[in-house]
Amino acid sequence: MMLKEAAIAAMGGSLLFFLLIRNRVHPAHRLAVTISSIVVAIAFYHYLRIFDSWSDAFTFVDGTYVQDGLPFNEGYRYVDWLLTVPLLLAELVIVLKLAKSTTRSLLIRLTIAAVAMIALGYPGEIAAADSTTRTVFGVLSTIPFIYILYVLFVELGRSLGRQQPGVRKLLDGLRYLLLATWGVYPLAYMAPSVINDAATAEVARQVGYSIADVLAKPLFGLLVLAIALAKSRDEVAPQDDDLHRELEEFEDA
Ligand code: RET
Of 96, 142, 164, 244, which residue is least crowded by CB atoms under 10 Å? Predict the structure, then answer.
């Protein structure tokens, strides 16, 4: 499936990029970019596994996919999310550079909510297309999902005023990218319930998850990098001022 190859390439390429650019970021803001590298490295590995599992399960016959092999393992994707979703939330919180106690409280609450969201989604994901289990766990998983959105948009919204105007714009973009891409996941989850043909539903779900993953990991990482670089420029400025003063003193002497 071409899309999975594209996802593998996007994860691998962005991994290389984040590693190469890391040194351009001021050490005070580097952790967020390091986390981006870890996120796409984890996703790169899991996409290789997902790709293999897909090839073992489906064959392309007369223009459509037919499931004629081993069962397709959706577990790789959930293990990937279990690790990467808390990390993505952590890099967002870390790049903000809030007070230590606020950061700590946000990290703990967001991690718990993210783990609950993914863990509750899994039993529904592997349940039959029209089963109650699927609906019940989908609804249960949506509760922590809404809590995460509440924290990011209402709670964090209040701290945005303290960020530099340029950074604030980027952060706004980051939050809307998050909303737009994370919103795709519950929609893709519903594909098997609304599309009758099982293989078509499976393809729709995989396409949704894969596109959302590329936007939610590498593109999200790029925006975090832009914020870290903008903040790095602010860090460099005082040193330049010092240099300036020294030069002036030197010229005066
Ligand atoms: C599930 C189950 C149905 C209800 C909801 C879900 C939300 C999933 C989300 C996943 C985000 C994944 C990301 C991965 C990127 O690395 C589990 C599909 C609400 C929001 C951001």
Answer: 244
Q: Which residues line ligand 1 (CB under 6 A)?
A: 81, 84-85, 88, 117-118, 121, 138, 141-142, 145, 182, 185-186, 189, 213, 216-217
C-alpha 25 to ligand 1 mean position (Å): 30
Amino acid code (one letter) for 79 = V
Do the beta carbons of residue 33 and residue 21 sit within 8 Å? yes
Q: What is the pLDDT along the chain (253 residues), one digit of tens a residue?
A: 678 888 999 999 999 999 999 999 999 999 999 999 999 999 999 999 988 888 888 888 888 788 787 877 888 899 999 999 999 999 999 999 999 999 999 999 999 999 999 999 999 999 988 899 999 999 999 999 999 999 999 998 888 888 888 899 999 999 999 999 999 999 999 998 899 888 888 889 889 999 999 999 999 999 999 999 999 988 855 555 666 666 667 667 6
Contacts of 87 (CB under 8 A, 6+ apart): 35, 38, 39, 42
Place of tokens 């903008």: 230
Superfamily of 2-252 according to CATH: Rhodopsin 7-helix transmembrane proteins (1.20.1070.10)
Q: How far is CA 83 from the centre of its chain?
A: 10
